[in-house]
Amino acid sequence: MLRKVVLGLSGFVAMFALSTTSLLATEYAHEFSDKKMSLAWSVNGDTLAVKVSAPTEGWVGVGFNPTDKMKDANFILGYVKKGKAKIIDEFGTDKTKHSSDKKLGGTVDAVLVSGVEEGGVTTIEFTMPLNSSDKNDTKIDVNGDTIVLLAYGAGRDSFKSKHKYRATFKVNLSTGTAEKAK
């Protein structure tokens, strides 16, 4: 009887380890890079899996669907400090400002998958719903164009530091087409 329990438990542990490994080793369906940053993603049902990288030892960030510069965008920012990754979920409150979704009465909808800082490059991976219940988040239509903001901060692990680089893109999350927005 004890042998059956041990065998069953070891099978469960092996299955858990395999599923965790596959979660961390995500393959992305689409990717693009500009001169400074790269963005990779996959649409998995009603979830968007994202990887964002930049040449910084500070934070990296991505915003979705602003209405005017940064206003109304759903932002996910992350950094890696002493080997530990951290992300925050924010909302564009003005053309040049964003604040914590939670402080604004919304919810934190992004889930950190991993974060790495190697050779002066920070990479953050997370998942988020395409249509959250958050009053601040707009629905992301994978078949239409999504305005994507990319940015990173200088070499400080602080979300309060201003971006060193930023760019705006028009992206079709379904086909993978991406072009720099004007």
Task: Summarize the SSE layout with pairings.
Elements: H1 2-24, E1 30-33, E2 38-44, E3 47-54, E4 60-64, E5 74-81, E6 84-94, E7 97-100, E8 111-118, E9 121-129, E10 145-153, E11 163-172, E12 178-180
Antiparallel strand pairs: 1-2, 2-3, 3-9, 4-5, 4-10, 5-6, 6-7, 8-9, 10-11, 11-12
Explain what this protein looks like in three dimensions.
The strands form 2 sheets. Strands 7-6-5-4-10-11-12 form a 7-stranded antiparallel sheet, with no helix packed on it. It has a 5-stranded antiparallel sheet with strand order 1-2-3-9-8, with no helix packed on it. Residues 2-25 have low confidence and may be disordered. A hairpin with a 2-residue loop joins strand 6 and strand 7. The chain is globular and about 35 Å long. The longest helix is centred in the first third of the chain and has 23 residues, at 2-24. 13% of the residues lie in helices and 47% in strands. The protein has one domain (29-180): Sandwich (Immunoglobulin-like), CATH 2.60.40. With 182 residues, it is mainly beta. The protein contains 1 helix and 12 strands; from the N terminus they run H-E-E-E-E-E-E-E-E-E-E-E-E.
